[in-house]
Amino acid sequence: MPKGYRRPTRKRVRGISVFGNSSFFRISSFVIRHFPRLIEQLVGAGTSVGANYCEADDGVSRKDFKNKIGTCRKEARETKFFLRMVATAEPSLKPEARNLWQEAKELHLIFSKIWRK
């Protein structure tokens, strides 16, 4: 692990990766009926953040750790993209999508900072 590295809380990463709040369930129940491919992409990117974070945390070398954190960074950015698409597809879901987008943005910034070290 890089010197000075502080782990994002697992609860926070799990929150975006599993979307363990009611906002996500409201979004997904509407979007899955009308835009199934969009929800597949959103869930795929969102859950990948958590999965890759677990992999990074168990990295066997500094290079492996940095690679996995880079993947977390990319998946968080992709999650933001799909949340924007959800907000565009269904404007009534914009407030919930915005809250999830903000969390994905903060995680993206955290992973970017770790990746640059």
Short description:
This protein is 80% helix and 0% strand.
Describe, in plain words, how this protein is organized in 3D:
- By secondary structure, this protein is mainly alpha-helical.
- The protein has a single domain (about 10-115), classed as 23S rRNA-intervening sequence (de novo design (two linked rop proteins)), CATH 1.20.1440.
- Helix content is about 80%, strand content about 0%.
- It contains five helices and no strands.
- The protein has helices spanning about 10-15, 20-35, 35-55, 60-90, 95-115.
- It is elongated, with a radius of gyration of 14 Å.
Question: Layout of SSEs?
Answer:
Elements: H1 10-17, H2 22-34, H3 36-57, H4 62-89, H5 94-116
Helix pairs in contact: 1-3, 2-3, 2-5, 3-4, 4-5
Number of helices: 5
- Name the CATH homologous superfamily: 23S rRNA-intervening sequence
Average pLDDT over all residues: 80
- Radius of gyration equals 14 Å
Structural class: mainly alpha
Helical coverage, percent range: over 70%
pLDDT below 50 for ≥5 consecutive residues: which ranges? none
Q: CATH first level: which class?
A: Mainly Alpha
Q: What order do the helices and strands follow?
A: HHHHH
**Strand residues, percent:** under 5%
CATH architecture classification = Up-down Bundle
Total strand count, please?
A: 0
**Alpha-carbon distance between the termini?**
10 Å
What characteristic shape results from the CA principal axes?
A: elongated
CATH topology: de novo design (two linked rop proteins)
Largest sheet: none
- How many domains comprise the coordinates? 1
